[in-house]
Specification:
Layout: H1 2-29, E1 34-35, H2 41-52, E2 61-62, H3 65-106, E3 112-115, H4 119-130, E4 135-139, E5 153-155, H5 161-166, E6 174-177, H6 182-196, E7 201-206, H7 212-216, E8 222-225, H8 226-238, H9 245-252
Helix pairs in contact: 1-2, 1-3
Length: about 260
């Protein structure tokens, strides 16, 4: 619950503040029992932080039993309270960042959704961003590294309604299922059509030619094959035939003879 998260956050911050106060003023109180002597608050804060983070540079050394015992308590509290609290606070910040991204996705409209993380997906993503268009990528956590920093990504199963809703496919202009697996592309487009109906354009790629006829049953707005596209363009170039926008459109839409 929100209340418990807030309470835990207050406890974490309060624990860090109390630990810093204890460490700094304890160091100042025992300042003459360190070598060199600690006589100002900046040196005390420095020593406290070094101990709490267990860095231990060794430039300030406790020389009495009392100072050594005090230093041990700071180290122990640093390992437990300081580290635990910092980890919690970082976790809260990360969760907050994810919530911001989710809210941003919910307000996206007329954006493009790219499903997949292969070289084709990365190239399409870069091309769309170069034109100043909004793009959301659906891929696994491991595949996020294929895309540039700052890419808006949704991690999860591309055929799962929760994942697709998080990418707000209902308000998208176009959804492109272009992974390396024809089955994954098929299931993703079927799920998209269930959620968004016919109002969203759909594009998919055929990786295995034997699946072409089956994938056409999806009635995607564009179903293309990279192998066919490459061979058609190469043959036209070798035969000296003209290649213009109309010819390329015919090849992509499988209208070529």
């Amino acid at each position: 619950p929100h209340h418990s998260l807030t309470s835990a956050g207050v406890v974490a911050v309060s624990s860090i503040i109390l630990l810093v106060v204890y460490s700094v003023f304890g160091t100042l109180y025992l300042g003459n029992e360190f070598q060199p002597h600690v006589t100002d608050i900046s040196a005390a804060f420095y020593f406290a932080l070094v101990c709490m983070t267990t860095v231990g540079f060794g430039d300030i050394i406790p020389i009495s039993v009392e100072a050594r015992m005090f230093t041990l308590t700071v180290v122990v509290f640093g390992i437990t309270i300081f580290t635990t609290s910092i980890v919690y606070i970082v976790g809260v910040v990360l969760r907050g960042t994810r919530e911001i991204v989710k809210k941003r996705l919910l307000h996206m409209k007329e954006h493009y959704v790219v499903i997949g993380a292969n070289p084709l997906a990365v190239s399409i993503y870069k091309g769309l961003k170069k034109r100043g268009l909004q793009v959301v990528v659906i891929c696994s956590d491991e595949d996020k590294a294929h895309f540039p920093d700052g890419t808006v990504t949704v991690a999860g199963d591309s055929a799962d309604a929760v994942t697709l809703n998080e990418a707000n496919v209902k308000d998208a202009r176009c959804v492109m299922a272009i992974s390396d697996n024809d089955a994954d592309n098929t299931f993703a487009l079927l799920a998209v059509k269930q959620l968004a109906g016919e109002g969203v354009k759909t594009v998919t790629v055929v990786n295995q030619e034997e699946n072409r006829d089956k994938m056409r049953l999806l009635h995607a707005d564009m179903t293309f094959s990279l192998s066919q596209l490459g061979s058609e363009v190469l043959m036209k170039m070798l035969c000296g035939e003209n290649i213009n926008n109309s010819v390329m459109a015919d090849i992509l839409l499988a209208k070529a003879p």
